[in-house]
Amino acid sequence: MKRYSVFAIAREALRWHQGWERAWRSTEPKASYDVVIVGAGGHGLATAYYLGKNFGITNVAVIEKGWLGGGNSGRNTTIIRSNYLENSSSAIFEKARSLYETLSQDLNYNIMFSPRGLLMLAQTEHEVRGYKRTVHANQLQGIEPTEWLDKARVKEIVPILNVDGPRYPVLGAQYQARGGTARHDAVNWGLARRCSDMGMDIIQQTEVTGIRTEGGRVTGVDTTRGYIGTKKLGIVVAGHSGVLAGMAGFRLPIESMALQAWVSEPIKPCIDVVVMANEVHGYISQSDKGELVLGGGTDSFNHYSQRGSFHHIEQTTRALIEMFPIISRLKMLRQWGGIVDMTGDRSPILSKTPVENIFINCGWGTGGFKAIPGSGWAMAELMAKGEGTLASEFGLDRFREGRFIDESVAAGVAH
Fold first, then answer.
1. Domain boundary pick from 342, 357, 383
2. Whether 135 contacts 146, CB under 8 Å
3. Which end of the chain has fewer CB atoms surrounding its CB within 10 Å, N or C?
4. Is the domain of 241 the same as that of 149?
């Protein structure tokens, strides 16, 4: 990474920061590419990165209708964990978590990965049984350290937590010590810079308006900047996946809705782990700037808004104030929403499609950020080889065959 002196920083401040070296190239689209990926969020960029890194495929375009990272990968709460129940889920999320640990070095870009630990609170007997089951499954899967903690130990780790709340008492928690957070923008920017360095084209402010096929095989895409031919097409657009699939002539078993979060005004450090409370659809962590990052569940109706609804903010904040009384006087600094794509079994889709050489990556629901490098690794293998080890269980055919990967308990409602 290029280093700048204090004098260079001062110089740029005086000329409106117009002289900085661009992190990635701004290019005009070529007539055709070996691979076109629609969606320049974390999953799309990671797919492109691992196509180049693992398979030497660099004649790639990543097309984004807005700005890079402006969708869900820029609108989330940056939680990273891998303590899922089913073997296939644990494998891909643990691959992602392990890749996150060295991603700053791999990209030569600080993504601010913070393995601060993650607690999933059990507040009903049903959750106690469910989380203990997941702990045992993780131990069999070799995902360490995932353990069960009693109430006293939870209080020791999070002193500001009210474990004896009248409505939401804490009975214990599932704990993954190597879970944590990373800086979402840095993940996007680091991946984009490495893709650009490999010669890939990142084309922003360019919307795909149609998908062309011939003889059941993809031939290219129509965009607001003209037609672009391609041998292979990856659709990686989260909540808008159904729209792109419709352009190609097939349907997806997903629904889109808003998941929202908000941050408080900054305060002194008071919580150094991530805490999730799925019973109340809430979770909380503290950013490096001191803001408390708060979030809730998805809206109960389908829509494409990135604002969310007021009642979720009120409902989640009310519960979190009972659990964390010290936050009651804080002001909300800002709020946002992301469009998540949910499957019936709360597990993703990494799959070939009915159209030859079109591949789909979607259905991550509320857990997309934590999966970015693992998802990209698996999608790149699928697109390069036509099959993939990590992606093998997440095909579209599982819905037709009834091979569901039920993660409704391990995924919870809010991650």
1. 342
2. yes
3. N
4. no
Q: Which two tokens stand for residue 307?
A: 């604002």
Say whether both 310 and 175 belong to one domain.
yes
Range of the domain at 193: 32-76+185-253+345-401
Residues 6+ apart with CB under 8 A from 132: 148, 174
* Domain shared by 103 and 176, yes or no: yes
Closest CA to 206 of 181, 233, 226, 184: 226
Location of structure tokens 């700005």: 67
Residue 23 lies in a domain: no
Helix/strand/coil for 282: strand
pLDDT at 178: 94
What is the DSSP pairing of strand 282-286 with strand 292-298? antiparallel
Q: Domain end: 342, 374, 390, which one?
A: 342
Find the distance separating the first CA and the last CA of the chain, reported in whole Å. Answer: 33
Torsion of CA 10, 12, 16, 17, to 10 degrees: -130
Question: Measured at the alpha carbon of residue 307, what is the angle toward residues 69 and 271, in degrees to the nearest 5?
Answer: 75
Residues of the chain with pLDDT under 50: 1, 412-415
Count of structural domains, the chain? 2
Which amino acid type is present at position 184? H
The structure tokens listed for 383 are 């697109």
Residue 61 class from Cβ within 10 Å (0-12 exposed, 13-18 middle, 19+ buried)?
buried
Q: What is the CA radius of gyration of the chain?
A: 21
A 10 A CB-CB count for 400 gives 9
H-helix or E-strand containing 385?
helix 372-385
| Same-domain check for residues 336 and 391 | no
Give 355-395 pLDDT, tens digit per residue: 999 999 999 988 899 999 999 999 999 999 999 999 999 99
Examine the domain organization and report whether 158 and 265 are in the same domain: yes
